[in-house]
Amino acid sequence: MSTTSASGAAPAAAGFDPVPVRRSPLARFTKRAARHPGFMAGAVLLAVILVLSIGAPLFTAHDPYAQDISRRLIPPVWHDKGSWEHWLGTDKLGRDYFARLLYGGRISLMIGAATVLLSGVIGTALGVAAGFFGGRVDMVIGYVINVRLALPVVLVALAVAALVGTSLNTVIVVLGLLLWDRFAVVARSTTQQIAHADFVAAARAIGCSTRLIVFSEVLPNILNPLIVVATLEMAHAILLEAALSFLGLGVQPPLPSWGLMISEGKQYMFFSPWVITIPGVALVALVLGINLLGDGLRDVTAPDNRS
């Protein structure tokens, strides 16, 4: 007699649990990220700033460089003398503040991304070399890292900018050559853990070259912590650029840097406080969004959260 049920499906064998459904790594990451409020808040905040900055021509018809002295220091729309034509007001040269804010976001994001790219390449290369080869290579690179850690970033950046000159490219290169140490430290420690793993030993046993092992076995397995470091260093670079621009040694006029906007408005801070409040709030929002995203990414990708 057949034991098949009326529906045609065989009953589950007694004493056997159903096989659990395995989700893909991307699905597990998405599920954990959606449950992390800090990660979601940072992602939304950063996404809004990215959209507004990259799509600046879609959100304002004003030229951020166009000057009109007759319209200088028009207050924002929530003031009595404000106007919807310049709803965030104008600066001391009559330039639309909303337009300069949006285009200034481009400058800050570009400096942050370019600095992280340059410093990430330098630091990761040094860290992987020190962790993978060890011995004298590790000793020499460790000494270089210690020398870099002994140098005050702000003072060195100020000195180099004063000696070499100030420009957008100079700021990116100087910051990129000063912010690689965290990448090197993290890459070195994680590479040391992976260099003696079984899959690396197996790759050596079948005759894989050192370059192939580093690029196919080591780098993919240390990528997560490096991404977290990159987000935090991006916020650090943006703040340093704003500080240099505020001191007059960073991005130069007429480029609409947020640090430069704060510097240009500091003489009006008691009579027109919005000229420093608006770019200051934008800078805080950008750095806060990047930090929340980085902290959330660290928590989401932590081994303790993997099930």
Main β-sheet, in a few words?
A: none
The amount of helix comes to 55-70%
Low-confidence regions = 1-13
How do the helices and strands follow one another from N- to C-terminus?
Answer: HHHHHHHHHHHHH
Q: Which geometry do the CA atoms define?
A: elongated
Q: Work out the strand percent.
A: under 5%
Whole-Å distance between the termini? 44 Å
Query: Taking Cα atoms only, what radius of gyration do you get, to the nearest Å?
Result: 26 Å
DSSP strand count? 0
Structural class determined from secondary elements = mainly alpha
Q: Output the number of helix runs.
A: 13
Average pLDDT reading: 85
Organism: Azospirillum endophyticum
Family: Belongs to the binding-protein-dependent transport system permease family.
Protein name: ABC transporter permease
Domain ABC transmembrane type-1: 105-294
Entry keywords:
13 helices, about 300 residues, about 65% helix, MetI-like, about 0% strand, transport, disordered N terminus, transmembrane, ABC transporter permease
Would you write up a description of this structure?
The protein is elongated. The protein has helices at residues 25-34, 37-54, 56-59, 97-133, 135-150, 153-164, 168-178, 181-194, 198-205, 210-218, 223-246, 258-265, 274-300. Helix 4 runs parallel beside helix 7, helix 4 packs across helix 11 and helix 9 packs antiparallel against helix 10. It is built from 13 helices and no strands. It comes from Azospirillum endophyticum. Keywords: Cell membrane, Membrane, Transmembrane, Transmembrane helix, Transport.
